[in-house]
Design brief:
Layout (H helix, E strand, L loop, with lengths): L1 H30 L2 H8 L2 E4 L2 E6 L3 H10 L1 H35 L21 H26 L6 E7 L2 E7 L2 H6 L2 H27 L1 H4 L4 E3 L4 E6 L14 E5 L7 H13 L3 E5 H12 L19 E2 L6 E2 L8 E5 L6 E9 L6 E9 L1 H7 E4 L1 E3 L9 H24 L6 H16 L9 H31 L1
Antiparallel strand pairs: 1-2, 2-3, 3-4, 5-15, 6-7, 6-14, 7-12, 8-9, 8-11, 10-11, 12-13
This protein binds zinc ion.
Keywords: Membrane, Transmembrane, Transmembrane helix
Pfam families: Peptidase_M50
Protein name: Endopeptidase S2P
Length: 475
């Protein structure tokens, strides 16, 4: 349950920050009463755990953009409505399928919908990718609604941005009368526009992610078969052995050309751990460390000797003395104490001392993985190599795509207060009008159908969320 405590700790910290911020603002208003004028003039509302701002300043630009390409937008949102309506059954199927996996827990099949919990499965720098992705996805979603309604020569009231606790968001305010004056199909397009924009953003991000090497080509040289170090962890024992920009040629005779192969190289060492001849004093030191459960096992190895360690074959239990090793030493499988010896062949990229060297690393596979990050990009300008833009961009897309897709999926299904509720309502109006009923009211039968669909979806959603969070925290 460690994750739950981390999560609660983060919630408490954020709550304290909010309380501090709230009282600071109140205090500043007391000292500088004019501050309140500014806050009111810009329609900023600050309450405990929420800050929001409303603006009409974007109405003009959005309206101009919508009117300028009006026909184009109408085609765009026609396609959007069709795609969104196709996404609806897929999304419901996804929730049902996901619930099935959560309940049955089949081997080797992971749930598709994963809860995002800052501090548990999103940490450090990733929180920023998450925050920015949410902000962009939500703004682009709302822009969809706004552009669509303007393309039907109608209007919005204003656009609001808010941050509730740690979740950023945006919403367009459309007057109900304005919406309900629209033709049913046009109204449906407005409701579907947000979902469509999220799906379009996903496709765009996917394309951009795959075109990264072209987009970044003015700044970075991309080679499909060379892996470069782009970041070195401050905590790594290899910090002084490498420089950013060094090329990793091989690792234990395995030659990776991309990240996937690099992972496979490490995995192959874990699956087939090698054994080396160690002196009795080495072995004694290691055994003492194991008995004392000490984390300083690395000091048992002589760093200068690591490259000279003789490889041998040991039996299953990790030790053997089959005469392969010189007298005074024994064949020991490093994996016995969770360690591996990785010999890294790296090429220095600095032109003044260009050369290849062998660097030994003894430790756990995880320690090696955490030591540095690699990718196929090399900065064209040396002073830029520390920025590691390709990694940040890649990580950003890896958040933006699932978040935007998630917003589309959650908004298209019939959940109370989200777009899905209004999409369902409009679809039922269209159905009712086809049956010869009035546009403005439902028969009791249709009202019942609407309630059943909304409540069923709510139960389906709640079960997915509750079981997902329970399983995440119970890990
Ligand atoms: Zn929406």
């Amino acid at each position: 349950m460690g994750g739950l405590f981390d999560f609660i700790r983060i919630l408490i910290n954020i709550s304290l920050l909010w309380v501090g911020f709230f009282f600071l603002v109140k205090l500043l208003i007391l000292i500088f009463p004019r501050l309140l004028e500014y806050i009111n003039r810009y329609q900023i509302i600050i309450s405990l755990f929420q800050i929001s701002i409303r603006t009409t300043k974007l109405n003009g630009p959005i309206q101009r953009l919508s009117i300028k390409f009006q026909r184009l937008w109408q085609y765009w949102f026609n396609v959007g409505m069709v795609v969104s309506l196709l996404t609806l059954p897929i999304s419901i199927g996804l929730f049902v399928y996901n619930l099935g996996i959560l309940v049955v827990k089949p081997q080797n099949i992971e749930p598709i919908i994963n809860p995002i919990v800052p501090g548990v499965n999103v940490q450090g720098q990733d929180s920023w990718y998450l925050f920015i992705s949410l902000l962009i996805s939500m703004f682009y979603h709302e822009l969809g609604h706004a552009l669509c309604i303007y393309s039907f020569n109608s209007r919005i009231n204003d656009i609001g941005f808010f941050m509730t606790f740690i979740i950023p968001g945006a919403h367009v305010d459309i007057h109900r009368d304005v919406l309900y004056r629209l033709d049913l199909w046009d109204r449906l397009k407005v409701f579907c526009a947000g979902v469509w924009h999220n799906l379009a953003l996903c496709i765009m991000a996917l394309l951009l992610m795959n075109a990264n090497f072209i987009i970044l080509s003015p700044l970075y040289h991309f080679s499909s078969d060379k892996l470069y170090i782009t970041h070195i962890s401050d905590h790594s024992i290899l910090q002084k052995s490498f420089n950013i920009g060094d090329q990793i040629v091989s690792i234990n005779q395995c030659t990776p050309t991309n990240i996937q192969q690099y992972i496979e190289c490490i995995e192959s060492e874990i699956k087939n751990p090698k054994s080396y001849c160690l002196s009795e004093s080495n072995i004694q030191c290691l055994n003492d460390q194991i008995i004392n459960d000490s984390p300083h096992m690395r000091q048992c190895f002589d760093y200068n000797e690591l490259l000279k360690y003789q490889q041998c074959t040991s039996s299953q239990n990790g030790t053997s003395s089959n005469g392969q090793c010189a007298s005074g030493s024994r064949c020991i499988q490093f994996a016995k104490f969770n360690y591996h010896l990785f010999i890294i062949n790296a090429t220095e990229q600095n032109p003044s001392k260009y050369g290849t060297e062998l660097i030994p690393f003894v430790g756990t596979a995880q320690e090696l993985w955490d030591s540095f990050t690699l990718n196929n990009y090399k900065a064209r300008l040396t002073w830029m190599s520390h920025w590691d833009i390709p990694r940040h961009l890649q990580s950003f897309y890896q958040y933006l795509i699932p978040i935007s897709l998630g917003l589309a999926v959650f908004n298209v299904v019939s959940i109370y207060a989200l777009d899905g509720e209004y999409i369902l309502e409009t679809l039922l109006y269209i159905f009712a009008s086809k049956q010869g009923g009035k546009q403005s009211q439902f028969t009791p039968k249709i009202t019942r159908i609407q309630k059943i669909i909304l409540n069923t979806t709510l139960v389906l959603l709640l079960l997915n969320i509750l079981i997902s969070y329970y399983q995440l925290f119970a890990k």
